[in-house]
Amino acid sequence: MEDSLNKQSVIPEKRFLQARFSAIRKTTAEYLTQPLVQLLAKTRMTPNALTWLGFGLTIGAATLIFSGYLFAAGFIVLAAGFLDMLDGALARGTNQVTRFGSILDSTLDRMAEAVLFLSILAFYVLNANPYSTTIILLAGIAMITSFLVSYVRARAEGTGLECKVGLLTRAERVMVLVLGLLLSQINYALIIALVIIAILSLITIKQRLVYVWHQARKMDSS
Asked: What is the pTM of this model?
């Protein structure tokens, strides 16, 4: 009986910590983007235009990866990731939030991740080295788990449930991949980055499923 009570007290605490981490992440993003939002608000730049610009940069980064310029690609991916934060911030800051804009942003985010992981796959397929097989396998796993993180949130929000929690959201995945690309000349650096993305994405999937399960159970019982 006591063990059951302890478990029940731990679960709300975990949910609180996840929600708190999500709030910290949001506050940090707003702090980083707010100065540029104020500047862009005075121009004709739209959130959707920023979304397309970020996707275009990602295509450029993927081209660099495919060509073997992984270090340079890391900086481009970083810039594209920042634009991905900026488009939503601009939409909220200028009251330009639209349903289509949200769908476009989510769609291009998934396409951007696919393009980056596929470019890594393609490069190591065509340029074999002792680590190629491992990197190819990990890139495939990282791509699948990354998609599932976003899929769980999309399905949850489609049923009216909140699902913004999780250890490794898109912003963190981008940062880990950027570090892997920038340090790719160091043995195992890209492998370590892909392992981190794959494992932490799996943990995030579990976190989101548990978080949504508690919400759904509460709603179904009310």
From this structure: 0.84
